[in-house]
Design goal:
The structure is a single chain. The chain is mainly alpha-helical. The chain has a single domain, classed as IscX-like (Arc Repressor Mutant, subunit A, Orthogonal Bundle). It contains 3 helices and 2 strands, in the order E-E-H-H-H.
Length: about 100
């Protein structure tokens, strides 16, 4: 018989993991860093209307970030949508 286990954090909101790497005390962003990218894009484009932002704009803004050090060709719609979603949720939560 399978017994269900309730973990104390199961109903809590768990913040997303930020995938960052540091090289010579310099933060670098990769496509795996969707949350960190979203935060940086939000910081650099505070007045943007997210309803008007395209995935193409997110792609262009991301590869232009000075901290971004990944292969631009590895981007896909799933990654770009994840960045958009993280950015959108941060705007809603007002953090």
């Amino acid at each position: 018989m399978h017994k269900s286990i309730d973990f104390p954090w199961s109903s809590a909101i768990i913040p997303p993991v930020i995938a960052l790497s540091f090289t010579n005390n310099h933060m670098t962003l990769t496509w795996e860093s969707t949350y960190a990218i979203a935060l940086e894009l939000r910081r650099q484009h505070p007045d943007v209307n997210l309803e008007e932002v395209s995935l193409g704009q997110i792609y262009n803004w991301t590869i232009q970030l000075s901290e971004f050090e990944d292969d631009a060709a590895l981007a896909n719609d799933e990654i770009l949508h994840a960045i958009f979603q993280d950015w959108f949720e941060e705007n809603i939560n007002g953090q």
